[in-house]
Amino acid sequence: MTNQKHFITPPDDLIKQWLGEFFGRSMVDAELSDSERYIAAKSSQFGADYELEACIHMLSKLGGNGEMIRRMRRPKPLSLKKEALQAARIELIEGGKNAELILRALEALPDD
Q1: Quick check: 3 pLDDT over 80?
Q2: Which end of the chain, N or C, is less packed with Cβ atoms under 10 Å?
Q3: pTM score, whole prediction
Q4: pLDDT at res. 8
Q5: What b/e string do you get for 40-77 counting C-beta neighbours within 10 Å, with b at 16 or more?
């Protein structure tokens, strides 16, 4: 299953409730598969994205700028370099002996 941080993932109990409604029987003791969790997460993300776009469209009709909402609610994930820089800075603060060298090397790399 894809583990993307921005997924809006329903809790297992809610997925089991939906499956129970679909199959017409209790799914409380059922073990969820990765595909069931994946489909539930993707479906939830689709609904959230659809609602966000509808709100942005409505705001733009009222003269507002919906792009700010999109940037705040759907931020782009950090590049590998930026993620590594954050980790190296934390390591440096915590006294890691090689953190300064790693930090300098990462800062010398081109941005993605």
Answers
A1: no
A2: C
A3: 0.58
A4: 79
A5: bbeebeeeeeeeeeeebeeeeeeeeebeeeeeeeeeee
